[in-house]
Amino acid sequence: MQFHHNGYVSADPRKQPAAGTGIDRPKQLPDQMDVLVVGTGPAGIIAAAQLSQFPQVHTRIIDRRPSRLEIGQADGIQSRTVETFQAFGFAERITSEAYIIKETTFWNPDPENPECIMRTDRTPDDPTGVSEFPHLVVNQARVIDYFAEYAYNSPARITPDFGWEFKELVVEDGHEYPVKVTLLACGGEAAGLERVVRAKYVVGADGARSNVRRSIGAKLSGDKANHAWGVMDTLALTDFPDVRTKCAIHSGAGSILLIPREGGQLFRLYVDLGEVPEGDNGKVRETPLEEIIQRAKAILNPYTLDVKDIAWHSVYEVGHRLADRFDDVAPDETCIREPRVFITGDACHTHSAKAGQGMNVSMQDGFNLAWKLGYVLTGRSPQSLLRTYSTERKMIARDLIDFDKQWSSIMAATPEALQGQEGAAEFYVRTAEFPAGFMTEYAPSVLTAVHEHQDLAAGFPIGKRFRSSEVMRVADASPRHLGHHHRADGRYRIYVFADRARIGEPGKVATLANWLLESNESPVRRFTPQDADLDSLFDVKVIYQQDYASMNINDAPKIFRPNVGELGLMDYEKVYAAWESSDIFEERQISREGAIIIVRPDMYVSHVLPLDSIQDLAGFFDDVLVPRI
Predict the structure, then answer these.
(1) Going edge to edge, which strands form the sheet with 76-77?
(2) Which of 360-364, 373-377, 536-540 has the lowest mean pLDDT?
(3) CA 483-484-490 angle, 5° bins
(4) 545 and 577 Cβ atoms separated by less than 8 Å
(5) Considering the entire predicted model, what is its pTM?
């Protein structure tokens, strides 16, 4: 963490100085704003948190609740999501209070006594070592708390406006704030008061029954699996030996997915309630809590379950639905106008909770969209950039639903039905990267290049998230995960992996560095705002192959040692060397001839280039960024 660049700081460095709209921010919801986010759930709050790094953009986030969420329904946090938490600066803090999933055990009927269950398999949670971060279980409310804290501590000082319910909207082209939104006050003396506000853009993060989705005419379609589950967060006495281990349990009496929760004693049970008959019309959702408990006891036989307290419970039917579009541009308007209204999270995709995907994918929706809104509203990018949100995220949502259908089907199947078929343990191991959040791969577009030079860095697949690896920071001989320096600050990253030339020697790295600093064709020169720090838009780092102990940081080209802040101090955290015990060139299959890796603000690899492909580097941003005036 760097925080003295504008002068000595003795207070909490996580609280950045207010700037732009964060200075004298109106306490009450104003009549006009740049972005209105509807809903403070995971998708909405991460969007607000990312937009808080764009203080020139006036962002408000509303929710019909009177105050913060206290009990969240979602709880599973993928490793990919913890990487995202790292970008927002709270991965270590939330991990310390979470339950960490290390293994999953699988239970099936005992062949010698089919009325009883026995452990039949045990698998590590991350069998391939796909991430240095763990798989967590933590209350959704705490996730929202951390993002809300980040948004408030950021320059824009964003804080939720509680007590406002979204009613409807209409887009009025030609107006400076074209989205006309009607809101209703909830609670207090103003309850029922109708009010109109205007925004340049609206983000609907208002759940599966989204009124924002309804207002733009998007359709949520799909199917039900006609299978119901009861879910309860339980405090109980039990002799079931794996109660503090994630478990998939199949028995003749039904199935359970057991998820230990944070705090040491709490655990969640997803309890199979069986097939839902035709014409049920939601009656299954009235299943009494006592019936869910009795089913759980029968499934766990011969083990006992003495329930002492239920913190929360619900009943749901498995459904898989996908919106036909994720913004307000109808198919016949695609070439006519740009989107003004977007939907995220459950507003555009719904599925079962048992694969632990919902909150995670929803947050990536919000992250994907928010930096693009920030770029457009600050004049960094053309409005056309916003088209990529629906294109990218709808594909990911479709993949999620396909996966969840398979997992839900396996979890609902009887032991007899799984005979001779792929079981839960085999499916879990085979698909481990998907539920961990690492199978997202964006197709070629203005943001994502084709794979022409992928062989130069096979371990950084274009379109997938930047997978971190340890390197040695030259300035202080400190081993660091390179990807952990990718903060959610709205910047692009350009990683220069050096060839065999040493630091300070003439060659491709020196030529590239000089071009980035001096040439009018350089993206750094063309797109960095006037009077801004050299690295305000592009964070450019270099990784050398030689031993760090042989290097003098002053020999590194100036682009890797920029002077920043009001005092013009040097940034010492951009020059690295491969670490002997964890050589990033070997681990990520990077050519010894070097490579350039471009990573976009939401941590996905945009391009891989040779060190001397200056023209390709210059042209890549032409359709993404607007040259400075």
Answers:
(1) 76-77, 135-137, 99-101
(2) 360-364
(3) 85
(4) yes
(5) 0.93
